[in-house]
Specification:
The protein is α+β, with helices and mostly antiparallel strands and 390 residues long. Helix content is 42%, strand content 16%.
Length: 390
């Protein structure tokens, strides 16, 4: 430690002496007492400018080539292809502008290095030149902004939900959960007051559409079909990030968000493209949400349409897997695959065969059967049939 301090002190002393000598030289020149000739150091510094720039370009190219294998593969969604084109087109313009301007920046000091045979020309302004280098960047920037706005409008113009595969994505510390609609293709409502240790989504079972929803442990997407993600968070801000699809949207507590896209490459196709038989898509969180942020990864699978439908058909309803819990909310519920739960005209919930639930005009008969089969209400305590207290 002492040796390090001594070395540091020695370097600082040398730097101070050099600065003092430099200041003395400048003061002498300013007073006109010494008109020194420019030595070899000026030529060395001038020659170093283009050399350093050339080495920088070589380093830039080598760094790019070294990083290229780690770039994401081509986008696996329709809008992602357009997003990638916009990114690389913008990057190409920036690289061209960088090379042109910095070539001049490093070449001019070499070309016009100090010489005792010539005197610098005073060139205060050039209006034509200033107009040119103002208009060109403005036109290019305007073009980029309009192209980006066009793509943004496309992404944020949501299709009708009946045209999409609607999936709910919920973030919590520190995991993702997803919920799919059942055969009715309609997600049931949720309410935050219903959230507990069992019902982590807060599924609202006063909504008949909730009973056939299912909650898998993987996010499956159909290839070639519009997917609409309904995004929300349960505690703090999270961020849905599907890098291979170029999808990113924050999940904010109390403020549901959405994002839609069309997957174009199945998991198997991407494994062939990348040459990695173990490749998997994933859903990650890109908002630092606490100590367990690193663990917020969720497996994503893109299936062919027929495989996707088969996978959906094989999933158990959440209400079936948690039948005892649901019965505490809806006593008439029965966990049968051919059973649905519907709302009768008096707003009560009742379990009936699925065919009856889907048939038009059957609700009245369902209500009648329910009333016929239901046990009669017992008389109030402390009263007889005549209405007198016993």
């Amino acid at each position: 430690m002492t040796s390090l301090l001594l070395v540091t002190a020695g370097i600082l002393v040398l730097l101070i002496l050099l600065l003092v000598f430099r200041v003395h030289t400048l003061v002498t020149v300013m007073r006109g007492k010494e008109v020194g000739k420019i030595g070899l150091s000026n030529k060395i510094n001038a020659a170093g400018m283009p050399i350093v720039f050339a080495l920088g370009l070589i380093g830039f190219y080598c760094t790019y080539q070294a990083a290229k294998p780690h770039f994401l593969p081509d986008a696996a969604s329709e809008h992602g292809v357009k997003t990638d084109f916009m990114f690389w087109f913008t990057m190409a313009l920036l690289v061209i502008a960088f090379v042109i301007t910095n070539t001049m920046l490093f070449w001019f000091p070499y070309k016009y290095q100090h010489s005792e045979k010539r005197k610098a020309f005073f060139y205060p302004d050039n209006h034509k030149l200033e107009i040119v280098w103002t208009i060109i960047p403005a036109v290019v920037m305007t073009g980029l902004v309009f192209y980006g706005l066009k793509e943004w409008n496309y992404i944020t113009t949501f299709p009708a939900e009946n045209e999409c595969e609607v999936i709910e994505v919920m973030g919590k510390q520190f995991a993702w959960q997803v919920r799919y609609p059942g055969k009715d293709n309609k997600l049931g409502r949720y309410k935050f007051k219903a959230i507990d240790a069992t019902n982590e989504f807060g599924i609202d079972f006063t909504d008949s559409a909730s009973f056939d929803d299912f909650v898998p442990r993987e996010l499956h997407l159909p290839k070639g079909k519009k997917v609409l993600l309904r995004i929300r968070a349960r505690d703090v801000i999270h961020s849905v990030f599907l890098p291979h699809f170029r999808v990113k949207m924050d999940a904010v507590p109390g403020m549901p968000t959405r994002f839609w896209f069309v997957p174009t490459k199945s998991t198997e196709e991407m494994r062939d493209i990348t040459g990695n038989p173990k490749f998997n898509y994933e859903l990650a969180c890109t908002e630092i949400c606490g100590r367990g942020h690193f663990a917020m990864r969720f497996l994503v699978v893109v299936d062919e349409p027929e495989d996707y439908e088969a996978w959906k058909a094989s999933q158990n309803r959440w209400s079936e897997d948690n039948a005892d819990y649901v019965k505490t909310l809806v006593p008439s519920f029965k966990a049968l695959k051919d059973t649905a739960v519907v709302a009768t005209t008096d707003s009560s919930m009742v379990a009936v065969p699925a065919d009856s639930a889907n048939a038009v005009g059957k609700k009245d008969s369902v209500k009648a059967d329910t009333k016929k089969d239901a046990p009669k209400a017992a008389p109030a305590k402390g009263k007889n049939k005549g209405g007198k207290k016993s």
